[in-house]
From TrEMBL, chain A:
Keywords: Cell membrane, Membrane, Transmembrane, Transmembrane helix, Transport. Residues 1-12 have a biased composition (Polar residues). GO terms for cellular component: plasma membrane. InterPro entries: MetI-like, MetI-like_sf. Belongs to the binding-protein-dependent transport system permease family. Residues 81-269 form the ABC transmembrane type-1 domain. It comes from the Bacteria. This is ABC transporter permease. Residues 1-23 are annotated as: Disordered. SUPFAM superfamilies: MetI-like. The chain crosses the membrane at residues 33-51, 92-111, 123-145, 151-170, 200-225, 245-265. It is found in: Cell membrane. It is a multi-pass membrane protein.
Length: 284, 274
């Protein structure tokens, strides 16, 4: 401490009022991806369109984008198509909610008690390595050709990545932060609410993000095995009918579903776990 | 802006003397990591702190200063000896103790204001009263206008100041501070020193402060505890007999200089330059 005479001086600590960062969201020089991403899309689609013509690729092998768009238009104006879409959406969403809900509950319970966690962890890891998709025939056998078997499939397949993320997330709480709360007399419940849960949030969102995509996958796979409706069923139908462009159109619709779900979850994440931009995602 | 004591003082068991408000007797601390050799962090620490006293702890890096504070805070188990605060054996954190950590340790998902309210929230203290106090503390450390900001929007020094507010918000009877001003520039640091003395004088807190700065220790303290290099042992306890209330100008006096030199000699003798 230098010994100059500045006793009780005016506070140097008064920092200037915080400023709003000037954000140039649409500056193309700052963020070249804003035009690069659509550019890549355009180039690929054009190459596909004219490349297939040039090389005389059979449209039963690979239809041209223009044919796929045509097929898509046909489907979007068909009432039956919307029925299929609605069925798959229902199956995926129901399965997702049940799967991740169960994972959050079980994961929270497991990580409360060390012995339980240590005992169950090997089983969880073992189950995780089972290719869940292979269970689809069994579920159809058990739960029939209707909605239930697909919901179960979607739930099971989105359950595991969520479970692992919840357990890992609740474990990720910073020891110093827990110590800080402890000094101020926090109970276990308070520590859970004030540190463990928020620390787990980025992991939970990673689990949701994988989970929703997996749930759609689960629903479609279930429909492959045995169903009378849904986008998976429609996919098989178009395939049987050699309507390959129609098949691609269904694939486009499925991709858009997945993307939409992904964006909704990212949006929620930015709102609710804003402090952590990118957390490593634990895949399944 | 005066920060008033809030009248929530530690209940005093009948037999506790004000002279041994904090009592450390024969304290030993050995860290025993699972896969490496044990570290003797502290050896035979004996220290009593009067109620309302301001004691600083100085010593070379790694000599066990943080360890000593964590044991006082009830965060770290001791290997041997006894530690009592207000006559109570410290085996878990006591609610009347506030602590400023070496790193700010703010919660990134809470605004600065909500971070500062954490102790009041945990101990379910009167919300309105403590909100007002939090606001006063923020003003005191120059963080007015940053209440609604998140920690990552603040500089390291600003975060550290928020950490200090948090330690003071529930008006703890005992305040433990682990290098609270380490991240601050010299000017802010001096200002904070003066303010800390004022808070201390007005609230009658018992303070144990760890610092790397010998002049800071001399300026603030009633006594300075000098620890030897690891394993930390008490090399000397230096009473600082400078008049109170102190102003920064006291540091240019000869008497202050003598104290600083005396403490610095311990470091030089140990081959450690501060
Ligand atoms: N959790 C731990 N496990 C094992 N050893 C530890 C642990 N914490 C501290 N130590 C050791 O104990 C010794 C004292 O550490 P401590 O953090 O108390 O030092 P310090 O005086 O606060 O140092 P600094 O001034 O650098 O903050 C060091 O040698 C350190 O390596
Ligand atoms: Mg330390």
């Amino acid at each position: 401490m230098p010994t100059t005479e500045v006793a009780d001086q005016t506070p140097h600590t008064r920092a200037p009022a915080p400023q709003q960062p000037t954000r140039r969201r649409f500056d193309l020089r700052e963020r070249p991806q804003l035009w690069l991403v659509p550019a890549v899309f355009v180039v690929v689609v054009l190459a596909w369109e004219y490349g297939t013509q040039l090389l005389a690729v059979d449209e039963y092998v690979l239809p041209r984008p223009s044919q796929i768009v045509e097929a898509l238009q046909r489907q979007l104006t068909d009432e039956q198509f919307w029925g299929h879409l609605w069925v798959t959406t229902q199956e995926a969403l129901l399965g997702f909610v049940i799967g991740v809900g169960a994972a959050v509950l079980l994961g929270t319970f497991i990580s409360q008690i060390k012995v339980v966690e240590a005992t169950l962890m090997p089983y969880i890891v073992a189950f995780q390595t089972v290719p869940k998709v292979a269970l689809a025939p069994l579920f159809v056998l058990w739960f029939g050709f209707g909605l239930t078997s697909k919901v179960v499939m979607a739930a099971v397949i989105s359950f595991f990545p969520m479970l692992v993320n919840v357990i890992e997330g609740l474990r990720a709480a910073d020891a110093d932060r827990i110590q800080m709360l402890t000094v101020f007399g926090a109970s276990k419940t308070q520590i859970f609410r004030m540190v463990r849960l928020p620390s787990a949030l980025p992991f939970i969102f990673a689990g949701l993000d994988i989970g929703i995509v997996f749930a759609i996958l689960g629903a479609v796979v279930g429909e492959f095995i045995g169903a009378k409706e849904g986008l998976g069923y429609l996919l098989l139908q178009t395939n049987y009918n050699f309507d390959i462009a129609g098949m691609f159109a269904v694939l486009v619709v499925l991709s858009v579903m997945g993307l939409l779900a992904h964006f909704v979850i990212r949006l929620l994440q930015r709102r609710l776990a804003f402090w952590a931009e990118d957390t490593k995602v634990i895949g399944a | 802006m005066a920060i008033k004591a809030m009248g929530r003082r530690m209940q005093q068991p009948a037999a506790v003397s004000e002279d041994s408000w904090i009592e450390v007797v024969g304290l030993d601390k050995r860290y025993q990591p699972r896969r490496s050799a044990p570290t003797q962090a502290l050896r035979d620490i004996n220290l009593t702190v009067r109620r309302g006293e301001f004691v600083s702890v100085v010593g070379p890096s790694g000599c066990g200063k943080t360890t000593l504070l964590k044991i006082l805070a009830g965060l770290s188990p001791k290997t041997d000896g006894a530690v009592r605060i207000a006559g109570r054996e410290v085996s878990k954190p006591l609610p009347e103790v506030g602590m400023v950590f070496q790193a700010p340790t703010l919660l990134p998902w809470r605004t600065i204001f909500d971070n500062i309210m954490v102790p009041a929230e945990i101990q379910k203290l009167d919300r309105d009263k403590h909100r007002e106090r939090a606001q006063q503390l923020l003003e005191l450390v120059g963080l007015t206008g940053f209440e609604r900001k998140y920690p990552h929007e603040l500089s390291g020094g600003m975060q550290q100041r928020a950490g200090i507010c948090r330690a003071l918000v529930h008006d703890p009877a005992v305040l433990l501070m682990d290098e609270p001003f380490g991240a601050l520039d010299a000017m802010t640091r001096e200002y904070m020193n003066v303010e800390l003395l004022r808070i201390w004088r007005e609230s009658g807190q018992t303070v144990v402060l760890v610092t790397h700065s010998i002049p800071e220790a001399v300026f603030l303290s009633d006594r300075v505890v000098v620890l030897s290099p690891r394993p930390g042992r008490i090399a000397e306890i230096v009473p600082i007999e400078l008049d109170r209330p102190r102003e920064l100008s006291v540091m240019s006096s000869d008497r202050a200089g003598v104290y600083v030199d005396r403490i610095r000699n311990h470091f030089n003798a140990a081959g450690v330059i501060d």
